[in-house]
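Dear all,

This email documents one entry for the complex benchmark we are building for the journal club exercise. For each entry we list the sequence lines for every component of the assembly. Then comes the predicted three-dimensional structure of the complex as a token string, followed by one or two observations. Please use this as the template for your own entries, and keep the labels exactly as they appear.
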Amino acid sequence: MKMLSIIFRNAFRHKLRSFLTIVGIATAVMAFGLLRTVVGAWNTGVANSAENRMIVRNRVSFIFPLPMTNRAEILRVPGVSDATWANWFGGQYGDVNDFKNFWPRYAIDPDTWFQVYPEFEVPADQLKAFQADRSGAILGAKTAAKHNFKIGDVITMNGDIFPGTWQFTVRGIYHGKEPSTDETAMFFQWNYLYESLKQSSPGRDLGAGWFVLKIDRPDDMAKVATLVDTMYTNSRAPTKTESEKAFQQGFVAMSGAIITSLEVISFVIIGIILLVLANTIVMAVRERTREYAVLKTLGFTGRHVLMFILGEAMIIGMFGGVLGVLLTFPIVKGFASMPMAFFPLNGVSLGTVVLALIVAGLCGLAAAAVPAFRAARMPIVSGLRTVG
Amino acid sequence: MTDSIVQVRNVSKAYRRDANSVPVLQNITLDVPTGEFVALMGPSGSGKTTLLNLIAGIDRPDTGQVMVAGTDVAQLNESQLAKWRATNIGFVFQFYNLIPVLTAFENVELPLLLTSLSKSQRKAHVETALALVGLADRMDHSPRQLSGGQEQRVAIARAIATDPQILVADEPTGDLDRKSAEEILTLLDRLNKEHKKTIVMVTHDPHAAERAHTVRHLDKGELQ
């Protein structure tokens, strides 16, 4: 028999109580893991931003387009190796009240977009077919799977920003290079939008929603931003050029209050874990005060008692932590498949797993600290007098 | 008396209850020769258990000196005292105080975990101790599978597992029926006579006290 065996048996002395405590901790850890995953997903765009990409948009607002002639001028800026552009399309597919029918749709340049975004991997033949079909579209694998879209299928949508009925033929399906790459978007040819608009709304100036620049050296970003923005300072469409990361952070900042709330809730959950565990440990220590005194009469020291109690709390905490982490995976998977999960939930990250387990373990230590120190310091005579 | 294993000299002890100091022992002097079996008797509150606790090194006197097995117990710090108890003192309590999640074997093994003995050596010690108390066939039983008398015998086996010189027993028969009490007293008698253990036993029971070589009476904190 080893000391660890004693700690382990003490942890499960009251099986029902330990079970309920573990389930309580597991539930809290699961909620913690889910919230961290959601916050992480919110920041996916920032995390996935390439180090060598910049965004040029209208300085006044994102909704105002930029002249297409800008592209050729921007490509001449030293340090810029490529430039592509896109417009947010919007559109309504099927029942607009069903969130499942929402996915991001962009009008893009078919020749340059996938050069600048190599993380969207499209088979060469599909890309070729897409480039050859004016009304072709490339769908993210997740959206294709969710709606069972296959190559050759025609997707009909109603336009909102760009009114009318729009038909797209699925010509390709892209997969993300990394697990965290968004696989929900749909890309179609900017020319399709431009030409359709020319017929339906002849006076409307489409322009580019934003330009995406590929930079030779990330160190040149500040210089490129200054050069580009200076070029258009006095134009009818002044620009704001920033790194892709800064651009994404701007979006995330719009949801700052929600993210902060989620983070606060995740810390409240840590408090709940502490209270659940502390309650169990306080009860256990109170019941066993006499036993700890007996152990001391046998030669065990206060340090041993401290170790027994902290160890017991750590074991219960870690059992709850591991169970909670295991439960987090199916919960996140289920959450990701829900229609309202419009941001990509790409599973539970290793960081979240490690953080959840550390939280559970540390909560074990923190919850048991006070009763453990008390029991360790309690005089033997007082302990022996205690009726447990 | 130089061969006394326990030398209590002019010891006084008081407990604090709220703002009041309640004297428990007053100027006690006691010698217990090596190999003696002493019974401490007296009414409730007379200070028997307090005196036993001082001898066992689980409490400290306010004044005076407690020398046990050549050590001035009051001079040791907590960790030294713990080590000293593990080596020199075996405890037997009224309510056995076995750890309920451990088997009889594991309960007896507990104090041996603090020694440098190997697993096989510990096993040999535990088996010897349990055989000595007549429970060699109950090693794997948990305390709740044992009768009160058997539990107390396991507690005695635990007390002698490290082969201490002194056994301190606080009302060891107080929770037992007459037959079981007799068995325990016989066992203590054997440990004293055959294994030369010095025993200091607190008891209310005159019948139990008869088994001791010497009976000392305490009343209102003073030895009679």
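Observations: Residues 60-237 of chain A form one domain. The mean pLDDT of chain A is 89.
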